Fold this protein.
Amino acid sequence: MNDGNVWGYLFAFLGVVGLAGGVHLMMETDKATEELAMVQSQLDGVERAIRGQQANLAQRKQAYEDRMRPDPLIAELDKVAIEQLEVEAAISALLAEDEDLRKQITNLQAQAMASAPGTEFNDLALSESKILHNAKLQKIENDILSITHSDGVAKVPIASAPMRIKNRLLVGIALEAPPRRKSLPEPSTKPGATASPNVSTQKYGRDRDTPEWNKYKADLAEYEKKLLNSRLRVQALENEAKTLQMQGSAALISNSMSGTTSPSRRYYARVTVDAYNQRIIEIRRKMDAAMLEVTRMEGLRPKAPDSDY
């Protein structure tokens, strides 16, 4: 074998080896590329899963915050419910006061009837043409008045008695029917349908049947009663002041119309008017104090549990 053939075989062998090495290298490169692509795909999947979990976490966090945040409608319902409790307490106080005043009027009328016999009326006009002199109420029996006078005894029905006697007996005071609390209308149902048992017991917002809320309701009822009494005190003083003003004005007009020139009578009239004015001033002072008490009471309204209202 000559040297040319040897070198030819050698180059051919090296070419085959080089080709095989290139093929092997290409195969290894393709495998690495496939593995890289697979890993990249897995990484993309992990990233998508992470983004999904992050979105889920954000949704859960938002849902939790929404749950913790007070619902405006529920808050408004709570506010209305508290206002309803306040109004109901005020109505209860008014109804209780109305009942108490009616009892007082009934007792005063009974006392007036019981203490009336023996009352003297001097000259008592039954009509324009009939006047009883030295009139004295003797007794009351079956709505008939027995009145003794200078000429004997007169029988007069209470209904036709002179106003002086009616005022003494406190009759003729007509009381309207006592007010009643209006009940809420029953929920309407369609014909053939049955009412839901949960309609009347459905609750919104906070549970108001707890010891704290029951104490609040009791405190609110007591507060409304005191506040009402304070306001009635102001009204009573105002009525008394108006009555005294009318009486003082009547006394002044009566003195002016009499045209008297007697110094003693003029002095008496002036003293009388001054006394009325002084009493009015005293009542005005009491009214100012009573109005301050009302203002103070209005600032002491009990606060509902766990409420900003």
Q: What stands out?
A: Helices lie at 3-68, 72-115, 163-169, 211-258, 263-298. Residues 193-203 have pLDDT under 50 and may be disordered.
